[in-house]
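Intended use. Records like the one below are meant for learning the mapping from a protein sequence to its folded structure. Do not use them to infer anything beyond what is encoded.
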Amino acid sequence: MNSLTHTDGAMTDRTSIPTDATTGSPDSAPEQGDVKYFLRVVSFFAVCAIAFVAWAVFLREAPKADVGATDRRLVDFTLVERSGRTVNRSELAGKFLVVNFVHTSCSISCFQVNKRMSKIQEQVAGLADVQLLSISLDPQTDTPPVLAKFAKQFHADAERWLFLTGERRAVDSLLEASFIRRAPDAPRASLFAATDRIMIVDDKGRVREQFNGTKSSAPFAVLESLERLRAAGRR
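Structure written out for the chain above:
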């Protein structure tokens, strides 16, 4: 604050200087605090950057599954639908299949793919030769009742959109023989790379195309592919 002091009859203007409460020196604590906060923030982001680089290197070097190999065919299988009934390959003979891969504890991206599948279900409602399949990647967790609850979130028609689970060996056999090529040294977790995929199997059981199911354009692309394949089959 400013104070006026009398000196030999004259008034002089004197400005007081803020001092530290304990030492009497100019108060530099706020500046020191700002520096410490800045250093903590920089350190945090540096650690995050290092962790990100390490994770990226791990993903690049770890054995991976070849998601969506299109030189595959739908093999014979017997799995369990969310309703509890058995579903096998013969039930799907002569149909075009729209297939995706789920686990009920899935992330946001997995949820997005199922929203796309719900949209596809609407678009193919009048096509009796088109069937939607969602195959569980985590059959130990995804029991029929769990899948039934999950399917309700997407208004899945019990006849048009099947959710399949079963013994893990049977599920893995179908996944690896028909959809996902996994290297011998790749962990089973690599199968989860397929959660963003939507694939099409034609009426002859051939895996024909795959799409990134997280994209908003996926339903349109799938419908366009189905129309093309169905038209070719009628020739």
